[in-house]
Automatic annotation (TrEMBL):
Source domain of life: Eukaryota
SUPFAM superfamilies on file: Formate/glycerate dehydrogenase catalytic domain-like
GO-annotated molecular function: NAD binding; oxidoreductase activity, acting on the CH-OH group of donors, NAD or NADP as acceptor
Entries under Gene3D superfamilies matching the protein: NAD(P)-binding Rossmann-like Domain
Protein name (database record): D-isomer specific 2-hydroxyacid dehydrogenase catalytic domain-containing protein
Length: 229
């Protein structure tokens, strides 16, 4: 085995999957190793599991029936509850909820914030990319404004709520909470009411612009494609 590189350098890549970060270390000494017998270059790398990173969720309104599963989600994610006024939300949205990844508009959310319109959506942190609604999203969220802000929106049909029994309402809340969990894992909720392609492009541009403005990154990602299969 011949080492062409005498001064190894480690390239570190961190990926996030299922609320856990994984650190991949690529060693240049391995990248430039040549096996004399096979005449092939060998590639060695190590993967280290880092500490669990919990995502943050902002909940507006109440979960009335599926409380057991809601408690389970509290152990999996950092749940923040907002129960004040729209005016206060606009003041503290970016700072207090800077790391929030998703918003759940639960039962009675309209009592606190009448509607997620342009004004509210523009005040959100760029980290937020999903709004899940119990009920009809069009009554609580300006879907076009959400799309323009790179935010996915998913809801439930109001017709399935009216006249439902307690068991049916619990099942409905479970479906919503499961969709929230799914969106936090995959980045996209099931059956969003806005178009996935449109939101994805805007969300990607928003993330890059945000990082560039903060001086944390300066790169051209036009020809970079990353996919998980």
């Amino acid at each position: 085995m011949v080492h062409i590189c005498d001064h190894p350098i480690v390239f570190k890549i961190i990926i996030y999957l299922n609320n856990t970060s994984y650190e991949i270390n690529l060693h240049t000494s391995a990248l430039f190793c040549l096996d004399n017998k096979t005449n092939k270059t060998t590639y060695n790398f190590s993967i280290e599991k880092n500490m669990e990173v919990k995502q943050e969720v902002l909940v507006i309104g109440e979960i009335l029936y599926a409380k057991k599963f809601y408690e389970e989600l509290k152990g999996k994610y950092i749940i923040k509850v907002f129960d004040s006024t729209k005016k206060e939300f606009l003041v503290e949205a970016t700072a207090k909820y800077e790391n929030v990844a998703a918003i759940l508009l639960a039962n009675g959310a309209d009592r606190f914030i009448d509607k997620f319109d342009n004004e509210v959506l523009d005040s959100l942190s760029p980290a937020i990319n999903v709004i899940i609604v119990i009920g009809d999203a069009s009554k609580l969220v300006d879907v076009k404004a959400a799309t323009d802000n790179g935010v996915f929106v998913a809801d439930t049909s109001l017709s399935s709520i009216k006249g439902s029994t307690k068991d049916e309402l619990e099942k409905l809340e479970l479906e919503v909470l499961n969709n929230l969990d799914f969106a936090l894992i995959t980045g996209v909720p099931k059956d969003p009411v806005n178009k996935i392609d449109e939101v994805s492009v805007i969300a990607a541009d928003k993330a890059i612009n945000y990082l560039n403005e903060r001086g944390e990154i300066d790169l051209d990602v036009s020809d970079i494609q990353i996919s998980l299969s």
